[in-house]
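Hey team,

Filing this mostly as a record. A colleague (T.K.) asked me to run one chain through the structure pipeline before their review meeting, and I want the input and output archived in the tracker in case anyone asks later how it was produced. No errors, nothing strange. Just documentation.

Input sequence:
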Amino acid sequence: MDEFMKAAIDEAQAGLAEGGIPIGSVIVHRGRIIGRGHNRRVQKGSAILHGEMDAIERAGRQPAQVYRESVLYTTLSPCPMCSGAILLYGIPKVVVGENRTFMGEEDLLRSRGVTLEVLQDPGCISMMHGFIAAKPQLWNEDIGET
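Output structure:
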């Protein structure tokens, strides 16, 4: 497995261990992780701290060129909010752990020139299936369902 997807999975597992939603993400610039994060909505009482948003936040202020040269790794297909951030910062490539449990805005990202690589990683799929089965209400809250 790619070391960067492994780092995103480690983030997802950290979120789960904290009582949160197991979605992790890292931002890689020129072969180095510059931001890592995981879904912290539960832990921080946040409305927006999805894994991708947390990784971007934790990367701190970066010149626009850094984002345009970066790859975002995420364990789950990016939702509309996270996809908007990817587009806003001009991140050109996203590597997705899986999109079977949730299909985000992949078509939008592709239509705007973002390259997507979807791995269908069995570990990512299993982690989300287990979480959704154990905490369906929390999952539905996270994705804006009732």
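Quick notes for T.K.: The mean pLDDT is 96. The chain is about 45% helix and 20% strand.
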